[in-house]
Amino acid sequence: MLLSKLNKITLALVMTLFLGACATQQKVTVPSPSSGPTDDAYTGTETVKFLADGVPDRVFFATNKSDLTTAASATLAKQATYLKANPTLNVVLEGHADERGTREYNLALGERRATAAKNYLISNGIAANRIKVISYGKEKPANPASNALAWSQNRRAVTVKTN
Amino acid sequence: MKYNILKIFFLFFLITSKSFALVSVDITRGNLDPLPVAISNFYFDVNIDGNLKKTNIENKIPELIQNNLTRSGLFFALDKKSFIQKPEVAHNKPRFEDWSFIKAQVLVTGKISLEKDERLKVEFKLWDVVSATELSALAFYTTPDNWRRVGHLISDKIYERLTGEKGYFDTRIIYVAETGPKVNKKKRLAVMDQDGFGVKYLTLGNEIVLTPRFSPTNQLVTYMSYYKNLPRVYLLNIETGLQDLVGDFPGMTFAPRFSSDGKKIIMSFAQEGNSDIYTMDIKTRVVEKLTDHPSIDTSPSYSPDGTQIAFNSDRSGFQQIYIMKSDGTNVKRISFGDGLYGTPVWSPRGDLIAFTKLYRNKFYIGVMRSDGSGERLLTENYYQEAPSWAPNGRVLIFYRETASDTAGRGGGAKLLSIDLTGYNERLISTETDASDPSWSGLLSAK
């Protein structure tokens, strides 16, 4: 996906040079590479539920990515604070992928996403034995539509209380 | 007669060789000349009693054969209304002029009789109309309720005699039957004959089941289940219903597949955000770890000779196809085209690897040689994946999903088959939506 985007960008760049050489002075807007799938993580609040007041239950990921965005880290920091204040509470982190990938790879990707969230909680002082991880791949979309918004809402790791 | 079919295969090659360039799907279909066959109704011998006559299998068996041969794309069945000779007369001594008059090149006839031990005897004959000769004559013995099986066996014999290749009609498909809304699909394991008949549901749908795969050598199936909310790989005998957990892993196991000798299961195990490839020997239960890399390694598939494994890894940063020796050494990336590649599956002939490709927001089913050369895309769509080979390596089955609307309606999964050449794409109709198909080996070879 990114590769094809990059190709397009390269093409656009070549076109710019070419048009420039033709001295038409036409401006071609070249999208910056960072506006591609590397940062298409969802930033809205639809589909989000709350573990407690002000503690969102989920974080979102960019296409094919499992690293935590700044917003995701902020959400997980709130979850860590909440879990510290409720030391008997255990959670399971459910990792998910969008429908635009092969089933088996998505299972692995969901596991990687949930683990990224889990590791953040652990590094914020939550005991590892309080957190379980499960991947659902693309099997349980939060939004069933087939569009970019739904896919971004489905690339997620959701923290669910188990007790 | 064989010459004619060879000509068809040769034509296939000529046409498709044009589409070897990357990302140029040739979607032209049905523009070749399938071989015209006349499939006569069979007839009942005088010793067949009233009850058996009511089964109507003397017409149903030829109809099933006709459906099989037509769906292969290599044959064209002539309309029975144009047949001049009665089934009995044709079976005993066809008047070839009558059949060449309606442009038949091949004629199939048959007779059904009852043996002393109450078994049914189904005889068939295959005739070359052009050279006025009998090509083959065989008899199968069975119980009346097993008539479909006999029809598939006869279809395979005809296919083999006329193409020089093994048939694939006496086979089954295991798949996942899907019902319910997209956000909470009920998924059941189901098995059916390759023509879509005789479906049996093997699980109730209480837990998600995914990616069932047939053993190439027997009636074992390996699949992934979320039983007790623990995603694990299982081994199931579909004849006895007995099943077993595969290995004892402290986390998710997935993407299982049999080795071609049926003795091992190869799969992924995910732990701490990292998926690696493992094998388990079914008899000894010995587990072996084959890859050890911080990337995702999944969708492994053995070569038919068991010496190599193709798999999917994102160690380059994105999903690509790799091969390695069966001991895990000598890892080599083989996919280098534009886009992402997944689900490599080695052809039972050993020469090709089928795969799923994602390029510019479209999904493709394609094939490439095991060194990565000769990439050829067979079909393009909104979403499709998971090719599985027919045992003769000429046909692939896969599933396709269309886009759903904002309420999640539409977008159901369907099973389709396509010829290796990229021609003859066919929907395989199922009672429910269906995904993750896997083709069995030839049942008669067991």
Which stretches of chain A of 5+ consecutive residues score pLDDT under 50?
1-37
User: Fraction of residues of chain B in helices?
Assistant: 10-25%
Number of domains of chain B: 2
Structural class of chain B: mainly beta
The CATH topology of the largest domain in chain A is: 60s Ribosomal Protein L30, Chain: A
Number of strands of chain A: 6
Query: What's the domain count of chain A?
Result: 2
- Corresponding CATH superfamily of the largest domain in chain B: TolB, C-terminal domain
SS summary, helix count of chain A: 4
> At the first level of CATH, what is the class of the largest domain in chain B?
Mainly Beta
Q: What's the N-to-C terminus distance of chain A?
A: 40 Å
Strand content of chain A: 15-25%
Helical fraction of chain A: 25-40%
Low-pLDDT runs of 5+ residues of chain B are 1-31
Strand and helix order of chain A? HEEEHEHEHE
Overall geometry of chain B comes to: elongated
Please identify the structural class of chain A as seen in this structure. Answer: alpha+beta
Supply the CATH architecture of the largest domain in chain A: 2-Layer Sandwich
